[in-house]
Amino acid sequence: MKSDIEIAQEAKLLPIREVASSIGIGEDDLELYGKYKAKISEDCLNRIKDNKDGKLVLVTAINPTPAGEGKTTQTIGLGQALTRLGKKTVIALREPSLGPCFGIKGGAAGGGMSQVVPMEDLNLHFTGDFHAITTANNLCAAILDNHIHQGNELSIDTRRIVLKRCVDLNDRVLRNVVIGLGEKSDGFVREDHFTITVASEVMAVFCLASDMKDLKQRLSRMIVAYDLKGDPVTAGDIKAVGAMAALLKDAMQPNLIQTLEHTPALVHGGPFANIAHGCNSVRATGAALKMADIVVTEAGFGADLGAEKFFDIKCRKTGMKPEAVVLVATIRALKYNGGVAKEELSKPDTDALKRGIVNLGRHIDNIRKYNVPVIVALNAFASDTEEEKAVVEGYVKDKGALYSYSEAFTKGGEGALDLAGKVLQVMEKGEADFKVLYPDNMSIDDKIRTIAREIYHAGDVDISKKAMEKIRKIEEMGFGELPVCMAKTQYSLSDDPTLLGAPEGFTLKVRDAYVSSGAGFVVVLTGDILTMPGLSKKPAAYDIDVDDNGKIRGLF
Description:
The protein is α/β, with parallel strands linked by helices. Helices cover 35% and strands 20% of the residues. The protein contains 20 helices and 25 strands. Helix 7 crosses helix 8 (201-208) and helix 9 (212-221) packs across helix 10. The protein is globular and about 70 Å long.
């Protein structure tokens, strides 16, 4: 089979006008970025806001492994299959970060015959949204430092500046820097830090804002520093909001592209799920629900991170209620959870599969705590044996969940028709009665313990003295009713990436916490999680190139 980028480059795309017309969006509703991508106009978003909502399907996965799970591939394949079955379907996805594209993980356009296109555009600069977010964040930082340089009227404590600059690349040397070196005119010398753009609060604000008014209110609430008395200083206090909003104005409009089979896809926003809330924008998902009978969206990484935050942050904030959840797994990844080395995963090993399948079972149980039915999609690989497939199917059925063997990667929508049928079967029964995991009025530390106990199955939670002091300060400032955004390794249900399968009884270690008051959640840092990743010894960037004819190679 050809590589993903070869398939994408050989695809016959429809003009984006034709894709838009399939969901009732006219040419005047589009702001075109060439032939094959466009932004949805504000006039269109305002006109459709009173339309009846379609039904929402969330796609999530088991904990990621080096073997890969194919969550985005299955999301796209499912959307294509539903379209084949005559359902008016729109897919809602996150935009890829350049960090993973040039790092290890690669892009986020799906794979094989289930991709969104144009793939190169999406995985690189796309429509410039991430650049706008990066610039807005760094403008705020520049205004903050200029305020200090020009006399510090607000008495900002330079030791307690919490806003970090950002860049959308993995660059470990920027985690801790010193700025202002040189002459007096070069600014106040202080320690500063960078985060990757997708972990910035501006990204979270961007993805949770419902419109421009809401965006500006959220930006104005962002705490950028504390003054010498310990009181918060916000982006509104330093008069940064208007200029930030101007930079984000065009980026706020959702992006429309298509799948290989021309199913419409709204791709907008992209916070990481291990260090942020991991969902595409509220605007894109909300608009998709007004355009379609069924919307298929995805949450980042495993269900313990992406799905939990989708439910407890995004759904809580918007009132969205999923009708079904598709949980993606692979036999290879389950064997990895059972102790098989990456190099040996293609060899049949039902014993390892039976050991590792408990990771799948844990996620099934967790999702049911939100009162939403689960369909397990087993992403097909050529190395899968009939005996191994039978083990997974039997296990899933014993858990009382629906099962589908999906060949969306090799066959596109045709390969996911069975999965689409199972999703429709669940939605027709109407069994979903969505609820969040914890109430707003629970204390922050109890929210942390609830997630640790109910989702991670921790035996205890060790909240450091520093973290607890910050939590109490956050509550004193009036943010105690906000939901919690856990920053945790994606590789394990615990905070230890080496604990595979379904660990129990471990102690979850919380080392820090801070409030993202503009986004509207409290970030809790566990284990060794970093907000600025680094490149590996052999990053994907080594293999990316452009030939003499301008054709990009090496993206995946």
